[in-house]
Backbone:
C-alpha cells in the first residue's frame, strides 16, 4: 500500500511510472525505487522460498545486509531487491531455493 | 593499479558522523572523499521524520531528513566529494577496496574515517522468518523513504526509542499499531516518546515477550505472553493478535567490520551495543591514521554522532597534514558538547563507557 | 594429567589424522591444539584430493595411497566429510604448455595414475562452461574432493570416540628434554610426561624446532581464495590450471615475471563445494605471516578464473580469505623422526597437499611411532634431507 | 520452552538446536560453530545471525559476551559480483 | 493566568534537548547547562504563542487556557486527516483514553511547525489537566 498522503512528508511526489514484470505479471513502480518497495506496494510479500526447507521469505533488513529479500532479476538469482532500483521492463521472479542459473557456457 | 584513486581523507559512510567528519576535514583544508553504499547520502537521517533532540549545534528541533539535506548541501558547498552507490568492500592498510559503477578499484588515503553506523539486532522465535516480520528500521525505510506501508496492522517488539518512534511513524503513515511488547519491566526509551504513542492509544506491554509468529506463507498472527520475575512466560497470559507486520526494535550493534579487517583493537562494551574499536579522545583507533565516529564507535544518537564526526574529521585532517588554525579550541568545544550530551540518567552510562574505551586506548598507547 | 603414549601437537588436518590413526591402533593419545581445531591452514584451503598435481615419484605414490584411504573414510569416521569422487581437470590455456603437461602426465601414468590428455573440444564436452580458447586439459577420474573442515572434525570426533583426548586452547610451551628424549611437554601450565611427541604444526614448526637447534626450511606461503554465493551444480569436476603446476614447482620462474598475476603466483584451483559455493584460488606468495587478502590478489584470482570459466562472472563473491601454506623447497612434507631425538617426530610441510595427504600421513606416522617401521618408505620425506642443525650432522640430499 | 526448531541463521537455515548440539560437541567459539553447522557461512556471511549465535554461546557455555570474540570479518562487506572484482581492463 | 493560554511542559526526564528554550521569544523557558537539565517555565512571561509547542521534539508541551468553567487545550498534532475548526472530536487523555466529545476551536501552524499542527479543543475546565490530545480521525 502506498502512503499517498503524509502529515510530515506531504503528498506522494509525482514520479515517472515504470512497469516491471513479477512472475509474468506487470506491476507499476515508481522510477528509482527499489524492487522491494514496488513489490510491497503491490501487495507482494513473499519474495523467495528457501533452499533447504522451502520456507517463504520477504524483506527483513531493507538495507542490503541480510539478503533475505533476494529474487531472480533478469535471470540473475540472489539480487538484493531492497537495494536494487527498478528499471523499465525488468523481469523479476520469485526465487526458489538457490535459483535457476543460466546455463554455463 | 587500474582505476586506483588517491585522496587525503577518505570517509566511509555518509550518515551524520561521516558527513560531519567530512565537513570538518574539508574545512581544515584536506581533500575529502566520502564513500557511501546507498543511492543518496545522509544515512539513517534520511528516514527520520521526527524532530531531533539536542541543541542548536546538533540541528535540534529539525527533522532528521532535513538535517541530512543541510549536511549534504554544506558538504557540496565546501567541495567534499560524495561518492554514492559506492561500496567499501574492504580495507587494506590505508587503502579502501571499493566497488563503484560495477567495477572494483581502490581508494588510497592518508587518513581514513570509518563512520559505518550500526545494524539492527535480530530476534529469534518460532515464526521469526515469516514475511511480515522485519526490523523496525526496515519498516521505517519503507514508509518514510519509499512511501510504502509494509503492513496495515502492526505490533512492535521493543520499547526503546527506536520502537517507540517507529510506532508513532507507522501511525503517521496510516497503519494501525496494536501494541508495543517489551521484555523489560520498564520502558527503555524516553518518556516523551512513550507519551506520544500512549496518547495515540497504543498500549505498551512491559514484561511481555513474543511467543511465536504464525501464518500461512506470511505473517498472520503473533502470540505474546507476560513474563514472570525470572523471565519465563506465565501460562494463561497468552494473547494473540491478528497482524501482518511485526517490527523488531531490539537494539543495534556497531557495524565494525572494516575496523576488524584493519586490525583495530576492540573492547566489548554493553552500553555501547557490543564490541567497539578502542579509540582516543580524537577518535583515532589503534591503527594510526584510522579514525572512527558515530554508532560504529558505540551506539548512541545522531547528535553525538555529529560531534564525534567533527572530532574525527579534525583529527583525520591533522593527520593528513591539515591543521585547522583553531584545532585545539575546536576539539575542546566538541568534547564539551559531547560531555553535555552524555550527561543525565540516559547519557551517563554511555559517558562512562566511552571514558573506559579512551582509557584502554591510552593504556595501549603507553604500552607501545 | 595422565601420561599419554603419544602427544600430538597441532589440531589441523594432519594433527587430527595422526591422532585418529594412533588412537585406532590402540595408543593413548593427547592432542594439544593451541587455539581451535582447524583454525589455521586447514580452514583456509580448498578441499582437493587431487592426484594429478603431484610430482611423479614418491609424492604421487603417497597421494595415491592417501586417496585410497579417503574412499571409505566417511564411513570409517562416521562423519560426512563431503567426499565426492568427482574427477579433476588441469586446464591447459595455451598450446605451448601442452608438451610440458604431456611429459608430466606420462610420468604420472607410469606410476599408475589414470590420467589422460583431452583436446579443447573434448574437455568442453565434459565441462561446457570452459572458455572456447582453452587448448585442452589433463583429466583424471581418480581426483576427488572433500570438505577440509569436516575432515578435521571427522578425524577429531572419531579419535575422541576411540579415547583420544582432544584439548583445544592448549598452546605448547616447552619440550622438556631428558637425554635424547622428550621427557615431557609443558602445555597450559601443566607438565605432561609423554612416550612420544609428534609435531603437526605446519607453518609454525620451524619456530618450535629452532630452540632445539633444528633449522627446518618450512616457509609460510600465502594463498588467497575467493568464495562465491551458493549456486546449483554448475561444474562437475575440480579444476587446476597448468600454470598452477608451474607456480607450485617453479616459483623462481614466476617471481621475476612482469605480469602481476604471475608475480602473485596465481594458479587456478577451483571447485564447487557441497554447499554450492565456488571456492576459487589461489595466489602463492611469500609475504611472511600476513594472512590478509589484497585487492590485487583478489582481482588477479578472479580475472584468471573468469577467463577460464567466463560464466563465473555473474556470481557474487561473498568472502575472501587467505591461508599460510607450509612451503618446503622440494614440495614434499617432512615425515619422520627428528634427528638427534629418540621420540620426537615431525609431520609437517605439506604446503597445498595437507588435505590430500592427511589420511596416509596419519596412518604412516602411527605405524612409525608404534612399530618403528612403515608400510610406505619415508626416506624421501626425511627431516634431515636438507642441511639440518649442527648437532644432528644430517645428510644433505639433492632434490629433483 | 523447547525452542530447538527456531531458525538462527536465516541464510543456511540453521536452528538453535543444531547450534546447541555443536556446542555440546565442543564448539565454543563463533568460528567453531560455523565449521560444525555452516551457520554464518551463507549469503549474508553471518551479518544477521552472528550476534544471536554469540548469545546462545554465552548462555550455553557460561561465557560473558566480552569473553566471546565475534570471529573473523573478511572482505567483501557485501556480495560483489566477480564481474566487478575483475576491475578495469588492465 | 485566567483567560490566557499558558504553556504546560510535561518533560519528566533529563534528556539532552533544548529547542523549547531556543524557540521561546520571551525567554520564558530556561534549561541552561548542562543541556540535560529539565526545562523550567516562567509562566508570568509566557504569552501562549505556541512556538515551543511546535518546536518540542518530544511533543511534550501543551497550552492550557482556563476561563470560567471552560478551558482550551492546545496540543501538537501530526496525523492525517486534520480536524477542521468546528468539528466535534473525541478528546483523549495521556493514556489515549477517551474523555468525551470536544469541539475544535483552532487548527494552526507556527514558525517552528515544519509539519506539526497545533490543534485547540474546547473542554470543560475540570478536564484541562487531563485532555492531551484527540482520537485520530
Residues:
Amino acid at each position: 500500500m502506498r502512503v499517498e498522503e503524509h502529515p510530515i512528508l506531504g503528498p506522494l511526489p509525482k514520479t515517472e511510472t515504470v512497469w516491471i514484470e513479477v512472475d509474468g505479471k506487470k506491476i507499476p513502480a515508481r522510477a528509482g525505487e527499489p524492487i522491494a518497495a514496488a513489490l510491497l506496494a503491490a501487495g507482494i510479500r513473499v519474495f523467495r522460498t528457501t533452499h533447504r526447507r522451502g520456507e517463504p521469505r520477504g524483506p527483513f533488513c531493507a538495507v542490503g545486509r541480510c539478503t533475505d529479500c533476494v529474487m531472480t532479476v533478469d535471470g540473475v538469482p540472489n539480487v538484493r531487491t531492497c537495494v536494487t532500483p527498478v528499471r523499465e521492463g525488468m523481469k523479476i521472479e520469485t526465487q526458489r531455493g538457490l535459483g535457476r542459473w543460466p546455463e554455463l557456457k | 593499479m587500474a582505476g586506483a584513486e588517491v585522496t587525503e581523507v577518505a570517509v566511509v559512510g555518509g550518515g551524520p558522523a561521516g558527513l560531519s567528519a567530512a565537513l570538518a576535514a574539508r574545512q581544515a583544508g584536506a581533500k575529502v572523499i566520502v564513500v557511501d553504499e546507498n543511492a543518496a547520502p545522509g544515512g539513517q537521517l534520511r528516514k527520520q521524520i521526527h524532530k531531533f533532540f539536542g541543541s542548536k549545534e546538533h540541528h535540534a528541533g529539525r527533522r532528521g531528513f532535513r538535517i541530512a539535506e543541510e549536511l549534504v548541501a554544506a558538504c557540496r558547498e565546501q567541495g567534499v566529494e560524495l561518492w554514492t552507490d559506492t561500496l567499501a568492500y574492504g580495507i587494506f592498510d590505508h587503502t579502501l577496496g571499493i566497488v563503484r559503477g560495477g567495477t572494483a578499484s581502490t581508494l588510497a588515503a592518508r587518513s581514513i574515517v570509518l563512520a559505518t553506523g550500526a545494524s539492527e539486532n535480530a530476534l529469534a522465535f518460532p515464526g521469526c522468518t515469516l514475511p511480515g516480520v522485519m526490523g523496525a528500521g526496515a519498516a521505517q525505510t519503507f514508509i518514510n523513504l519509499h512511501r510504502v506501508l509494509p503492513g496495515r496492522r502492526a505490533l512492535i517488539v521493543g520499547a526503546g526509542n527506536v520502537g517507540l518512534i517507529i510506532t508513532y511513524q507507522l501511525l503517521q503513515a496510516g497503519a494501525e499499531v496494536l501494541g508495543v511488547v517489551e521484555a523489560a519491566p520498564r520502558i527503555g526509551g524516553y518518556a516523551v516518546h512513550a507519551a506520544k504513542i500512549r496518547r495515540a492509544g497504543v498500549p505498551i506491554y512491559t514484561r511481555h515477550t513474543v511467543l511465536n509468529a504464525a501464518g500461512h506463507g506470511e505473517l498472520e498472527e503473533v502470540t505474546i505472553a507476560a513474563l514472570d520475575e525470572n523471565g519465563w512466560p506465565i501460562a494463561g497470559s497468552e494473547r494473540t493478535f491478528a497482524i501482518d507486520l511485526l517490527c523488531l526494535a531490539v537494539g543495534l550493534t556497531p557495524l565494525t567490520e572494516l575496523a576488524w579487517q584493519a586490525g583495530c583493537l576492540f573492547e566489548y562494551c554493553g552500553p555501547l551495543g557490543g564490541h567497539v574499536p578502542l579509540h582516543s579522545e580524537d577518535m583515532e583507533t589503534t591503527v594510526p591514521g584510522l579514525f572512527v565516529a558515530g554508532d560504529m564507535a558505540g551506539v548512541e544518537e545522531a547528535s553525538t554522532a555529529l560531534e564525534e564526526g567533527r572530532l574525527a574529521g579534525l583529527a583525520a585532517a591533522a593527520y593528513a597534514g591539515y591543521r585547522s588554525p583553531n584545532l585545539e579550541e575546536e576539539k575542546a568545544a566538541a568534547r564539551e558538547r559531547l560531555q553535555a550530551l552524555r550527561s543525565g540518567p540516559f547519557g551517563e552510562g554511555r559517558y562512562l563507557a566511552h571514558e573506559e574505551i579512551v582509557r584502554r586506548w591510552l593504556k595501549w598507547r603507553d604500552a607501545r | 594429567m595422565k601420561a599419554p603414549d603419544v602427544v600430538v601437537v597441532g589440531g589441523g588436518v594432519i594433527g587430527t589424522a595422526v591422532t585418529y590413526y594412533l588412537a585406532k591402533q590402540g595408543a593413548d593419545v593427547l592432542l594439544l591444539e593451541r587455539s581451535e581445531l582447524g583454525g589455521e591452514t586447514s580452514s583456509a584451503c580448498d578441499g582437493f584430493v587431487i592426484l594429478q598435481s603431484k610430482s611423479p615419484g614418491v609424492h604421487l605414490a603417497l597421494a595415491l595411497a592417501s586417496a585410497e584411504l579417503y574412499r571409505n573414510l566417511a564411513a570409517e569416521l562416521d562423519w560426512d566429510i563431503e567426499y565426492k569422487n568427482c574427477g579433476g581437470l588441469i586446464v591447459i590455456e595455451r598450446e605451448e604448455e601442452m608438451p610440458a603437461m604431456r611429459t608430466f602426465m606420462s610420468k604420472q601414468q607410469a606410476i599408475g595414475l589414470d590420467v589422460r590428455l583431452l583436446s579443447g573440444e573434448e574437455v568442453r564436452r565434459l565441462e561446457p562452461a570452459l572458455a572456447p580458447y582453452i587448448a585442452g586439459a589433463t583429466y583424471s577420474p581418480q581426483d576427488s574432493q572433500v570438505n577440509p573442515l569436516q575432515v578435521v572434525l571427522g578425524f577429531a570426533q572419531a579419535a575422541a570416540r576411540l579415547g583420544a583426548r582432544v584439548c583445544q586452547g592448549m598452546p605448547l610451551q616447552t619440550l622438556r628434554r631428558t637425554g635424547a628424549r622428550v621427557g615431557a611437554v609443558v602445555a597450559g601450565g601443566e607438565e605432561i610426561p609423554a612416550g612420544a611427541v609428534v609435531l603437526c604444526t605446519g607453518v609454525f614448526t620451524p619456530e618450535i624446532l629452532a630452540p632445539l637447534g633444528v633449522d627446518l626450511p618450512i616457509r609460510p606461503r600465502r594463498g588467497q581464495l575467493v568464495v562465491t554465493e551458493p549456486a546449483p551444480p554448475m561444474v562437475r569436476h575440480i579444476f587446476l590450471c597448468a600454470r598452477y603446476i608451474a607456480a607450485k614447482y617453479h616459483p623462481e620462474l614466476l617471481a621475476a615475471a612482469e605480469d602481476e598475476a604471475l608475480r602473485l603466483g596465481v594458479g587456478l584451483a577451483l571447485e564447487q563445494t557441497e554447499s554450492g559455493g565456488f571456492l576459487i584460488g589461489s595466489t602463492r606468495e611469500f609475504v611472511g605471516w600476513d594472512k590478509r587478502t589484497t585487492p590485487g590478489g583478489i582481482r588477479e584470482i578472479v580475472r584468471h578464473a573468469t577467463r577460464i570459466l567466463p560464466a563465473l562472472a555473474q556470481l557474487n563473491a561473498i568472502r575472501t580469505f587467505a591461508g599460510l601454506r607450509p612451503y618446503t623447497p622440494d614440495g614434499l612434507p617432512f615425515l619422520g623422526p627428528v634427528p638427534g631425538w629418540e621420540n620426537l617426530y615431525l609431520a609437517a610441510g605439506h604446503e597445498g597437499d595437507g588435505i590430500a595427504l592427511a589420511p596416509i600421513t596419519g596412518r604412516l606416522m602411527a605405524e612409525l611411532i608404534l612399530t618403528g617401521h612403515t608400510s610406505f618408505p619415508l626416506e624421501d620425506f626425511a627431516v634431515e634431507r636438507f642441511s639440518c642443525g649442527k648437532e644432528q650432522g644430517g645428510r644433505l640430499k639433492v632434490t629433483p | 520452552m523447547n525452542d530447538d526448531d527456531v531458525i538462527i541463521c536465516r541464510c543456511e537455515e540453521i536452528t538453535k538446536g543444531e547450534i546447541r548440539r555443536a556446542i555440546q560437541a565442543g564448539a565454543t567459539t563463533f568460528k567453531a560453530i560455523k565449521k560444525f553447522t555452516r551457520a554464518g557461512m551463507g549469503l549474508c556471511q553471518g551479518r544477521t545471525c552472528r550476534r544471536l549465535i554469540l548469545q546462545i554461546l554465552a548462555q550455553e557455555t557460561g561465557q560473558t559476551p566480552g569473553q566471546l570474540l565475534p570471529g573473523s570479518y573478511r572482505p567483501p562487506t557485501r556480495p560483489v559480483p566477480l564481474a566487478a572484482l575483475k576491475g578495469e581492463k588492465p | 493566568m485566567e483567560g490566557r493560554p499558558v504553556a504546560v511542559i510535561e518533560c519528566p526526564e533529563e534528556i539532552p534537548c533544548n529547542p523549547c528554550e531556543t524557540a521561546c521569544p520571551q525567554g520564558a523557558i530556561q534549561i541552561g547547562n548542562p543541556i540535560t537539565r529539565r526545562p523550567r517555565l516562567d509562566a508570568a512571561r509566557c504569552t501562549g504563542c505556541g512556538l515551543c509547542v511546535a518546536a518540542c521534539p518530544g511533543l511534550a508541551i501543551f497550552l492550557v487556557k482556563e476561563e470560567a468553567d471552560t478551558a482550551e487545550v492546545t496540543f501538537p498534532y501530526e496525523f492525517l486527516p486534520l480536524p477542521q475548526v468546528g468539528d466535534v472530536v473525541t478528546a483523549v487523555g495521556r493514556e489515549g483514553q477517551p474523555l468525551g466529545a470536544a469541539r475544535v476551536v483552532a487548527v494552526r501552524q507556527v514558525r517552528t511547525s515544519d509539519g506539526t499542527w497545533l490543534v485547540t479543543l474546547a473542554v470543560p475546565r475540570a478536564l484541562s489537566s487531563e485532555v492531551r490530545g484527540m482520537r485520530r480521525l
About this structure: Chain E touches chain A at residues 78-80, 82, 114-115, 117 (CB under 8 Å). The beta strands of chain E are 6-9, 29-30, 40-41, 61-67, 70-77, 88-92, 98-108, 117-124, 133-134. The two ends of chain E are 32 Å apart (CA to CA).
